[in-house]
Amino acid sequence: MSLKSKVTGLILAGGRGTRMGRVDKGLQPFRGTTLVAQVLARLAPQVASLAINANRNLPQYQALAGAAPVLPDYLDGFAGPLAGLQVGLQFCPTELLLTAPCDSPFFPLDMAERLHAALEAEDADLAMAVTMERDPEQPDAAPFRQPHPVFSLVKASVLPQLEAYLATGARRMEGFYKSLRVAEVLFDDSAAFSNINTLEDLHHHERTAAAPDRAPAAAPPGRAAGSPQGAASGAAGSRAADGDPAALAVEQAQRLICARIAPVEATETLALLAALDRVLAEDIVSPINVPAYDNSAMDGYALRGSDLPAEGATATFKSIGVAYAGHPFAQAPQAGQCVRIMTGAAIPPGCDSVLPQELAAGIDGDNVTIAHNAIRAGANLRRAGEDLKAGGIAIAKGKLLRPADLGLIASLGIGEVTVRRKLKVAFFSTGDELRSLGEKLEDGCVYDSNRYTLFGMLQRLGCEVLDMGVVRDDPQALEAALRAAAQNADAIITSGGVSEGAADHTREIMALLGDVAFWKLAMRPGRPLAFGKVQTGQDSAWLFGLPGNPVAVMVSFYMFARPALLRMMGADSQLQTMQARAAQAIRKRAGRTEYQRGIISLAEDGAPQVRLTGAQGSGILSSMTEANCIVVLRHDQGNVDAGDMVDVMLFDGLV
Ligand code: AMP
Ligand code: MG
């Protein structure tokens, strides 16, 4: 059962609004809609049902809430958030209740998920958001812990405890929480929990956003609650500058995608040579010891360690035969005897040490002289099972099979492996301005390059690709393409048409055919992203609506589609980064992740250093071909000085 289906959302809008001059906070106009509508739009996609706790202006709240109930306090006199929690828990039709106040429209879109993880892990009654804050008056003082009790996920079963607490006359959230098992969840983005307490706050936040945008979907909750679109327009509620707290951090988007996607079930059994780059579906268990017998690591002489000469002495051994790889020598040497042995040959019975031939003090025909310090007993042997023990897991399932894996499996005598079936991925480009190769390039048109980069990236991932070419910005053509793709593929990758300004129908049609969220991400390049499930009849496919700009397509593919596709393939998906010294200063704004194209090389001191390719615009594809890595500048990071260490992701790995 999905988490969402277990959670009811409760918006706490029942306060008196004292600090705003007793106005009803939730109904304050904000970014083209109202505060509560913005909160609703962020909460809706995380929950199965919703309620609003309000004590005034109930018709206005009801108009926003659609079919969801608006619940006034049961206790008299604006008794505070616990009174709201009480009616919320009384109403709650699911096992969990997620609360958010009406004056905080920036909270994370994965809040339910992250609170839930802690609730489960700590077997708690309630999970609460916590951030670390600094005192603006004392910026050098240590940060302090700031709990946010109104952002919590609580088990509906605590209602009797709450009623007992309220019956004592107590009203403080903190006091009630003391009677519960509380899991605290540290969120690193404190701006996401900032609330709007005063009219000055409101105006400040209004100004930090650019022109107001469409109203978020405060649609009837039946629809809003079931679909992330509400959040999409809420998250994208302003066409704000980067650094807008409503933009979703890259890691959050990755987590949200990952949480929804599961590996394909089907497997197939292949001959070993056909299994390169496929994902192992079952553990490879070693049927034998590798190596299967003790053997020599060197060309030399096998002997008994107990016969080696004492301190200061030498000893002479007589060679009684030769052991070759594949041709064991079966006779055990006696005291003073040895066996000439080649690398990989089985150690003759009774022997436990090998003298490499170049360490002999003298060789005269069959007589070999050894000094006391030439080797120690036990030297130069490869022991049976030292690589792999019979019955042990040689390679765990989920491994993307690389050349070394094929070799290892062969070394076990295994000729066939069970792998996950290949993923089918359909892709197409959208845009009336796109021309395919071979067509005439009229004024205002561009050749479709995304088709080729997407083809390459999908092919490299080992997917079965379904190239659907260019689809015009025409609703019928887009709908037909998405339906066909959903029927034939596990995943659909599109490029273009997902930004808010896009003068085309892509978003509309995607939303129509599925449960698709349109995110605005705190990243550069690649701000818009659509993700969700497209359904047609019995068939469905995961949709990744990537931006149109050629560099943005690649970066968003690598950051979002690739890990998700690998997960569907049943494979481990970590992208490896390494550190390199920045050869130049790099401008970077904190509050978004930036992916800059870089060239990594070795500096004079032999350490890796990275410089940027020239222009970094998201349409400048030459910056990608020139680059051999991406410099990853993390969300919180600011400007980089020359000489600072930065994270880089190499384009080419050795394996
Ligand atoms: P869009 O997101 O559709 O507004 O597109 C953003 C920019 O990317 C526009 O300049 C488009 O012309 C360009 N673009 C979109 N798709 C492609 C493509 N397949 N190949 C090259 N450029 C594209
Ligand atoms: Mg377009």
Which characteristics define this entry?
655 residues; alpha/beta; Spore Coat Polysaccharide Biosynthesis Protein SpsA, Chain A; Molybdopterin biosynthesis moea protein, domain 2; Molybdopterin biosynthesis moeA protein, domain 3; 5 domains; six-stranded mixed sheet; 16 helices; 35 strands; 24% helix; elongated; binds adenosine monophosphate; binds magnesium ion
What does this structure look like?
With 655 residues, this protein is an alpha/beta fold. Helix content is 24%, strand content 28%. A 7-stranded mixed sheet has the order 5-4-1-6-8-7-9, with helices on both faces. Strands 16-13-15-14-18-17 form a 6-stranded mixed sheet, with no helix packed on it. A 6-stranded mixed sheet has the order 25-22-26-30-29-27, sandwiched between helices. The two termini are 38 Å apart. The structure holds adenosine monophosphate and magnesium ion. The site of magnesium ion has 7 residues, from loops.
